Amino acid sequence: MSDPLGLIGGAGGVSQPQQANAPLPPLPAGSPSFKDVLLENLREADALQADANKAIEDLQTGDRDDLEGVILATQKAELAFKMLQGVRNKVVEAYNEIKQMRI
Questions:
Q1: pTM of the model
Q2: By CB distance 3.0 to 4.6 Å, which of 5, 29, 41, 64 could disulfide with 58?
């Protein structure tokens, strides 16, 4: 059984939950930030979209004749876009939830 909240200690007992205002543990050295990971995924999705557009152009001009490769490239680009759209939706949802908190 997994422990997503970290409430079960390694010794088999239940550990105390962290305080709400306790500082978060520092990130390990060399680990990328959320911003870096997000920007890298944006670049990758953009590159996949550019590859899909190039594949479609090559198919239309006759430089390429493998329809399956073109379909695969467009599906990869669509999937990457939907993944980023899902991340965006979750971030906006979290922002709205934080915005509605009473202090």
A1: 0.66
A2: 64
